[in-house]
Structure formats: structure tokens, C-alpha cells
Amino acid sequence: MLNFTHDIPTKLHFGKGAIEHLALALDAFGKNVLLAYGGGSVKRSGLYDTILDILRDGNFKVTELDGIEPNPRIESVERGVELCRQNGIDVILAVGGGSTIDCGKAVATGIFWEGALWDMVTSRHGQLRALPIVDVLTIAATGSEFDGGGVISNMALNQKVGNSYTYPAVSICDPTYTFTVPAYQTAAGSADIMSHVFEGYFSRTMDSDLSDGIAEAILKSVMRNCPTALANPEDYEARANLMADSSVACSGIPEYGKQSTGWPCHAMEHQLSAFYDITHGVGLAILTPRWMRHILAKDATTLPRFVRFARNVMGLDGDDELSLAHAAIDALEDYLTSTGIPMALTELGIGREHFAEMTARANRGGRLDNAFVPLTDEDIEQILEACL
Ligand code: NZQ
Ligand code: ZN
């Protein structure tokens, strides 16, 4: 087990009725609130009205940043920073999914950034000074509610860039707010949660029992609860388990003591989203089984990890270890297919036109040199080809 430091400064209020903590959470920072949200789901669900009532009762002054896109754009960050500066905002309240929270985080730091905001997104600045951010989560997926990262897109440049910004001060996670998440986004979000775990589980560090056990528990929980949530969107226990899985999966906890891998599937997926604006979790679902088969074929020393995955997560058994490993990857692919999301790039209208550029960008700066199996440009292109 490797050394590690972990500091999550986010207070997480989880469960039915957790919104009761909102007014007090905001009050700690001031009365002048930037209310950030996406394309309208919060209005359709009634959450927007609930929040406005709370803000009105608490005598908060509200400025709205609306229309934040899935795969949030730099233009929304710029708009948010402008609104904060014009209105002397004390605290950002992001209500929505990873896209809204990520945009809120970038706005929170952007207000203190001098110069072009895209330079902030693309520079290795570490964490910056930031306005406080409080969020109300509406979809189980990214874990943005419990991490310091954010991912911002610039479609003019076909770039989607992850960076560290700031942790939410308070996250309000009420699973009932996810009852309205459509099947496609429920399945995509669940695939994203699984990928966050895979990115650390398939690491060269093999002796970190706690992290591996947590990772396996999350994977099994997602595969048990996502189908239930798809069949019955208002199943509280299923939605609650997925929401808790989401927060822990991307928190760093499943990677305690493990060598960082550069998150290869995420590195590749962000290129797909940058060029084609696809749903993040869908890109990951398509990539993951293909990446697994590729690294298993390339490096036989990966076999024990795949066998552990087969036995502990997919519940398979057998004496022929290679067959077992392949059966586990096939079973994972079957599970992902059963959730109803597209499982080939061609289904999304994606061909090989931009593969060379995507490959170079995914691997920029030797990002994947420490992957479980280091990936060369040639490897990445082969994985993308297998996804068509
Ligand atoms: O925009 P609205 O109208 O709100 O609709 C959203 C959006 O269309 C809808 N939705 C969310 N909650 C809903 C709902 N619809 C009905 N009822 C609800 N309760 O779902 C759609 C997707 O929302 P989005 O916020 O984009 O989803 P997600 O949480 O998956 O966020 C994806 C973004 O986060 C980034 C991704 O790359 C992508 O840009 N990521 C952020 C990470 C982080 N901060 O740590 C890590 C991840 O790996 C990921 O890269
Ligand atoms: Zn992700």
C-alpha cells in the first residue's frame, strides 16, 4: 500500500428531506446567491420552486445562471463569472448534475482569475482561491458533489479538459430528486460511477485490501441498483444506493494507497465528448470492455486482477483463468448493454475521422504512462477502432 493524504472538506447531507439544511448552509457565507442550473429539469421537477421558496423565506438575494449545458461550455463559465462580478455574489448554489456543479466550481474560481478563463481551465494551477459553493445534486453519476474536480468544454477547439477547482462546502444529496432522471441518463450515470471505480481498481498496486473491497462493493451495488431504478424510477432504496455510490466512487477513497493510473478510459472518453458532445457515461460504457480486452491481450500480468474481478464482482468461477477473465469482461458488456445505452460508436454517428487527433490528445504529456498497462498512441487507436 502506498502513502496517501486525503482531505475532503465537503459536508454532505444525505437523504430524504436533506434540503432542510440549505438555508443554514448558505447563510454561513452570505445573502447574495448565484443560483446555477441546467436546461430546465429542475423547473419541470418542481425543485426550482422549492429552492426559490427557501431562498425567499431566508431573505437571500438571487441572481440566476441558467441553461448550463451537459458537458458545460466555457461560455457558461464566462457568463457566471460576469454575473458574480456584477452582483457581488457571496456564494454559488449549483442545483443539478455534474455539469452544473462543475460549471459552478469553475465560476467560483474564475472570479479570482485574471485573464482569459480558458487559460484557467487548461493550466496546471492546482487548487485556486474560490468563492464557496453549495450544491443540490439531482443525478447520481460524476461524484462532483464530493470532489474538487470539474470538466469544462470548448467546442470551438474540440477540447474538454478536467482540472481541479474547489470542493463544494456543502452538498445536499436527496435521492428523491433523482426520481425524474430519464432512463438513458440513469444508465449513463451508473456507467460513469462504475468507470470511476475501474480506473483505480485496475492499478499496479495489488495489496490495498480496503480500496479494492470498497471498489468491489460499489461495482456490485451499481449493477444491482441500476436495473431496479430503470424498472422503477421511484424506488428510493435503488436511487439512494446509486447516489451514495456516486459520491464515494470519485472521492479518491477507492484509490487509497494505490498508484494513480491516469484514468485511461476517461482520457479517451473526454476526446469523444470534445469532438461529438456525447454523454460522458455512454462513452465510458462503450470504451470500458474494449479497453479491458486490449490490455488483457497486451499484458498477461494483468490476468490475476481480471480473475479477481471475475470472482469478486461478476460472481463467476472456473479453473481456466484466461477464460474466466474473458467471461467477466463479456458479462460486464452484457450488463451494460442490458441498461439500454448505445454500446458502439457507430450508433452515435461516430466514425474514425478524428481518431488520430483524439489519440494524441488523450495521451498528451505521457498521461497514460503509469496506467495499469501503459497505453501508446497505437494502443489507443486500436481501442477506439474496437469501439466502432
Ligand atoms: O440540464 P438539465 O435540464 O438539468 O438536464 C440534465 C441533463 O440533460 C439531466 N438531469 C439531471 N438531473 C435530472 C435530469 N433530468 C431529469 N431529472 C433530474 N433529476 O441529465 C442530463 C445530464 O446532466 P449532467 O449534469 O450533464 O450529468 P452528469 O452528472 O453525468 O455530468 C456530466 C458532466 O460531468 C463531467 C462529465 O465529463 C460531464 O461534463 N464529469 C465530472 C467529474 C467531476 N467533477 O469529478 C468527473 C466525471 O468523470 C466527469 O468527467
Ligand atoms: Zn466520469
Unreliable stretches (pLDDT < 50, length at least 5) are none
The residue-averaged pLDDT reads 97
What percent of residues adopt helix (DSSP H or I)? 40-55%
The total count of helices amounts to 15
Instruction: Tell me the span between the first and last alpha carbons.
Output: 38 Å
Q: Taking strands numbered 1, 2, ... along the chain, how are they ordered across the largest sheet?
A: 1-8-5-4-2-3
Specify the structural class: alpha/beta
Radius of gyration: 20 Å
Cofactors, ions and other ligands in the entry: 5,6-dihydroxy-NADP, zinc ion
Strand residue content: 5-15%
Total count of strands = 8
Order of helices and strands: EHEHHEHEHHEEEEHHHHHHHHH
Brief characterization of the structure:
The protein has 15 helices and eight strands. It is α/β, with parallel strands linked by helices and 388 residues long.
Annotate the secondary structure layout:
Blueprint: E1 11-14, H1 22-27, E2 32-37, H2 41-45, H3 47-57, E3 61-65, H4 74-87, E4 91-96, H5 98-110, H6 117-122, E5 133-137, E6 149-154, E7 159-164, E8 170-173, H7 183-201, H8 209-231, H9 236-249, H10 264-276, H11 280-298, H12 303-312, H13 321-338, H14 355-362, H15 377-386
Parallel strand pairs: 1-8, 2-3, 2-4, 4-5, 5-8
Antiparallel strand pairs: 6-7
Helix pairs in contact: 4-5, 7-8, 7-9, 7-11, 8-9, 10-11, 10-14, 11-13, 11-15, 12-13, 14-15
Bound molecules: 5,6-dihydroxy-NADP and zinc ion.
Zinc ion is lined by residues 142, 192, 195-196, 266, 280.
